Design the sequence.
């Protein structure tokens, strides 16, 4: 279901994006939206997105969902998920060694995710897709909020918290093609008494189920549903790359940066606390929160598209 709320909760309280007047001097600590350099960069990006031949690729990370109440993975905030456990909990190795502890962790994480709703950044990207039908959205997030916001041309490159699959490779419910829709009934006994005996099990072969997510010691090509082929297709004829809320710490962002450099594609980075490294030095930085910047970008694109649609009509009037 498409949620249309544009109210954002942040450091400055609740802001209604529809009423945010960027022409008036104001004091919003959520984002340096009044910074003229940011406004100029957004105009530049909007112009690039609005040309008829534009084929933009957006790559989102955990930062875009922070305003929805979901902690990031490597951020500086206290709830950052992988702050201490990146090399342990997020691996196939850990799941095989201790599936009970792994499932307890993921159920807690997924319960938090399912209670969240899309924020203005998710909604703006879904609306941008309406105006930019060639836009491809690649998310590293497993929270499903882009789907809730209405995005269609979406690649969930790290899987989804809303699906699960069998651990037995030969099973039709397992990789590389098999996947099941999440069903809470599989976890009733486990939630009551977590143990090896109550682990969720495949309805076909009775082997333990696992989350349908990409772990750090696995490959993007390990499951068709991760969409690696679609990702590469999007890169084939892209014209601009935009990162949103990502730390540039995993394979897909590294590959995208390398490919963009090879193809001489202009790349932007929307993040209030951008990662500073040699690898990201070529990015055009928009140092601001996505839940404010992306709705502003949407409005600029809408204005440019509206102007473009009127030009042929105006030219015909002048000719006649």
Sequence:
């Amino acid at each position: 279901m498409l949620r249309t709320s544009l109210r954002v909760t942040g450091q400055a309280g609740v802001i209604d994006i529809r009423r945010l007047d960027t022409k008036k001097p104001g004091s919003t600590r959520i984002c340096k939206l009044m910074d003229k350099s940011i406004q100029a960069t957004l105009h530049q990006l909007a112009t690039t997105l609005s040309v008829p031949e534009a084929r933009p690729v957006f790559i989102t990370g955990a930062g875009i969902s922070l305003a929805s109440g979901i902690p990031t993975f490597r951020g500086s905030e206290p709830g950052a998920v992988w702050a201490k456990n990146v090399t342990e909990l997020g691996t196939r190795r850990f799941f095989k060694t201790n599936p009970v502890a792994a499932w307890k962790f993921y159920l807690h994480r997924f319960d938090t995710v399912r209670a969240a709703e899309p924020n203005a950044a998710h909604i703006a990207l879904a609306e941008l897709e309406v105006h930019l039908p060639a836009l491809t959205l690649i998310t590293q997030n497993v929270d499903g909020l882009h789907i809730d916001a209405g995005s269609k041309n979406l690649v969930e490159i790290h899987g989804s918290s809303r699906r699960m699959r069998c651990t037995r490779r030969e099973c039709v419910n397992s990789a590389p093609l098999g996947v099941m829709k999440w069903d809470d009934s599989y976890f009733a006994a486990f939630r009551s008494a977590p143990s090896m005996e109550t682990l969720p099990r495949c309805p076909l072969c009775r082997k333990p189920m696992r989350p349908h997510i990409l772990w750090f010691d696995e490959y993007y090509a390990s499951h068709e549903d991760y969409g690696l082929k679609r990702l590469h297709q999007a890169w084939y004829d892209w014209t601009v790359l935009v990162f949103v809320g990502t730390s540039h710490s995993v394979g897909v962002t590294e590959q995208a940066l390398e490919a963009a450099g090879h193809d001489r594609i202009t790349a932007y980075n929307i993040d209030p606390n951008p990662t500073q490294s040699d690898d990201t030095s070529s990015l055009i930085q928009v140092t601001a929160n996505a839940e404010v910047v992306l709705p502003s970008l949407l409005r600029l694109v809408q204005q440019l598209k509206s102007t473009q649609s009127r030009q042929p009509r105006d030219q015909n009037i002048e000719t006649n």
Summary: The chain has one domain: 53-305.
